[in-house]
Protein backbone atom coordinates (compact mmCIF):
# COMPACT_ATOMS: atom_id res chain seq x y z
CA UNK A 1 0.00 0.00 0.00
CA UNK A 2 1.16 3.49 -0.80
CA UNK A 3 -0.09 6.98 -0.10
CA UNK A 4 -0.74 7.60 -3.80
CA UNK A 5 -3.78 5.36 -3.34
CA UNK A 6 -5.26 7.93 -0.96
CA UNK A 7 -7.10 11.11 -1.82
CA UNK A 8 -5.47 14.41 -0.95
CA UNK A 9 -7.98 14.82 1.87
CA UNK A 10 -7.05 11.43 3.30
CA UNK A 11 -3.34 12.33 3.16
CA UNK A 12 -4.11 15.60 4.96
CA UNK A 13 -5.94 13.63 7.66
CA UNK A 14 -2.93 11.35 8.05
CA UNK A 15 -0.56 14.31 8.42
CA UNK A 16 -2.79 15.88 11.08
CA UNK A 17 -3.08 12.62 13.03
CA UNK A 18 0.71 12.20 12.88
CA UNK A 19 1.10 15.61 14.52
CA UNK A 20 -0.88 14.63 17.63
CA UNK A 21 -0.59 11.88 20.23
CA UNK A 22 -4.15 10.52 20.18
CA UNK A 23 -6.51 13.11 18.72
CA UNK A 24 -10.25 12.60 18.69
CA UNK A 25 -12.10 12.88 15.42
CA UNK A 26 -13.25 16.32 16.55
CA UNK A 27 -9.62 17.39 17.19
CA UNK A 28 -8.66 16.26 13.69
CA UNK A 29 -11.67 18.03 12.20
CA UNK A 30 -10.92 21.34 13.95
CA UNK A 31 -7.23 21.27 13.01
CA UNK A 32 -7.94 20.54 9.37
CA UNK A 33 -10.74 23.12 9.19
CA UNK A 34 -8.27 25.73 10.40
CA UNK A 35 -5.80 24.77 7.70
CA UNK A 36 -8.31 24.43 4.86
CA UNK A 37 -10.42 27.38 6.01
CA UNK A 38 -13.60 25.45 5.28
CA UNK A 39 -16.09 23.43 7.26
CA UNK A 40 -15.74 19.65 7.18
CA UNK A 41 -18.92 17.71 7.86
CA UNK A 42 -19.07 14.38 9.69
CA UNK A 43 -20.21 12.61 6.53
CA UNK A 44 -16.89 13.47 4.91
CA UNK A 45 -14.62 13.13 7.93
CA UNK A 46 -15.45 9.78 9.48
CA UNK A 47 -15.68 7.64 6.33
CA UNK A 48 -12.25 8.95 5.32
CA UNK A 49 -10.82 8.23 8.78
CA UNK A 50 -12.24 4.71 8.45
CA UNK A 51 -10.37 4.25 5.14
CA UNK A 52 -7.11 5.13 6.90
CA UNK A 53 -7.90 2.59 9.61
CA UNK A 54 -8.81 -0.10 7.05
CA UNK A 55 -5.55 0.46 5.16
CA UNK A 56 -3.56 0.09 8.39
CA UNK A 57 -2.17 3.64 8.44
CA UNK A 58 -4.15 4.64 11.55
CA UNK A 59 -5.45 2.79 14.56
CA UNK A 60 -8.73 3.71 16.20
CA UNK A 61 -9.48 3.34 19.89
CA UNK A 62 -12.09 4.42 22.38
CA UNK A 63 -11.68 7.39 24.71
CA UNK A 64 -15.19 7.00 26.09
CA UNK A 65 -18.51 5.62 24.87
CA UNK A 66 -19.02 8.54 22.46
CA UNK A 67 -15.47 9.49 21.50
CA UNK A 68 -12.78 7.65 19.57
CA UNK A 69 -9.13 8.51 19.24
CA UNK A 70 -6.89 8.02 16.23
CA UNK A 71 -3.18 7.25 16.25
CA UNK A 72 -0.81 6.85 13.34
CA UNK A 73 0.65 3.36 13.01
CA UNK A 74 4.26 2.51 12.24
CA UNK A 75 3.12 1.73 8.67
CA UNK A 76 1.45 5.13 8.40
CA UNK A 77 4.55 6.89 9.69
CA UNK A 78 6.73 4.95 7.23
CA UNK A 79 4.45 5.87 4.33
CA UNK A 80 4.64 9.56 5.27
CA UNK A 81 8.44 9.33 5.43
CA UNK A 82 8.56 7.68 1.99
CA UNK A 83 6.19 10.32 0.59
CA UNK A 84 8.43 13.14 1.86
CA UNK A 85 11.48 11.47 0.31
CA UNK A 86 9.64 11.08 -3.00
CA UNK A 87 8.54 14.74 -2.95
CA UNK A 88 12.04 15.95 -2.06
CA UNK A 89 13.60 14.24 -5.08
CA UNK A 90 11.52 16.58 -7.23
CA UNK A 91 12.43 19.67 -5.26
CA UNK A 92 8.90 20.22 -3.97
CA UNK A 93 10.08 21.64 -0.65
CA UNK A 94 12.61 23.99 -2.24
CA UNK A 95 10.21 25.31 -4.88
CA UNK A 96 7.45 25.93 -2.34
CA UNK A 97 9.71 28.02 -0.11
Descriptive report:
The protein has 97 residues and is of the alpha+beta class. The protein has one domain: Winged helix-like DNA-binding domain superfamily/Winged helix DNA-binding domain (Arc Repressor Mutant, subunit A). It has 5 helices and 2 strands. It has a two-stranded antiparallel sheet with strand order 1-2. 15% of the residues are buried. The model has no long low-confidence stretch (mean pLDDT 91).
Sheet with the most strands, sense and barrel status? 2 strands, antiparallel
- Helix count equals 5
Looking across the biggest beta sheet, what order are the strands in?
A: 1-2
- Binned, the helix content reads 55-70%
Shape: globular
User: Ranges with pLDDT <50 over ≥5 residues?
Assistant: none
Mean pLDDT, to the nearest integer, reads 91
Superfamily at the CATH H level?
A: Winged helix-like DNA-binding domain superfamily/Winged helix DNA-binding domain
Q: Nearest-angstrom radius of gyration?
A: 14 Å
Domain module count = 1
- How far is the first residue's CA from the last residue's CA? 30 Å
CATH topology: Arc Repressor Mutant, subunit A
CATH domain class name: Mainly Alpha
Task: Using the 3D structure, state the CATH architecture.
Answer: Orthogonal Bundle
Strand composition percent = 5-15%
Tally of strands? 2
Helix-strand topology string: HHHEEHH
Structural class: alpha+beta
